[in-house]
Model the fold of this input.
Amino acid sequence: MKTKLLLPTVLATSLLTAALSATAQDVAADGSANAAAEAFAEASAPTEQLAARYADLMGSTEAATALIQRLRSNAEDGAAMGYGEIDNALALTRSAIESGAATSADAALDTVLQLRSDGMGWGQVAQELGVSLGDAVSTAHGVGTAAQAGGNADATLSLAGQTGVGTVAAGSVGAGTAASVGVRAGADRNAGANVNTRVDARIDAGLRGSVPDRPAGLSAPQLPQRLPLLSRPGRP
Done:
């Protein structure tokens, strides 16, 4: 009897345990997915910033992005670099070209990476290239900031120019339309006044009537001739 009573309890406990285990696994999976998404978002922001900063050095934003991603993974020798290290490497690459220590970005970057793989610190690499690490990084950051500011200024000027052109065009159309309407309205008023004047003239002529013509066959009456004057008798 006791065995029959315990069996349902054991089954219910097993089902509850399985449900809780499945829920915990789902929560863990969701947490891992969220963590991966957050890590990707955090990683993409520095990549975009570095790509914008060194786009002129590498020729384009796309080329800079591809290089940064390659240095981040570095599948060739497994020595992945952090964003700060990539920033230092590209800043020294720019300084090496500007100082004349290298003739191209690829050659300068290869030299920087080779010196790093030899065990040199970033300061030692800069000294080997004959530049200052602090000056190189400051210059690179200043160039990147100026390039971004210039792009924003160009976009603002372009937008302002388009807005000004649209405003002038709209004003011209509005002024032309208003002038045309005013001219047509004045012409209509003048035409109406002329019509009214002609109608009034016709009405006045009808009220006054016309002078009747002289009947045919009648001539003007003839005035009688004046009698001759009598001469006075002479004195005796």
Notes: The chain has a mean pLDDT of 68. The first helix runs from residue 2 to 53. The two ends are 206 Å apart (CA to CA).
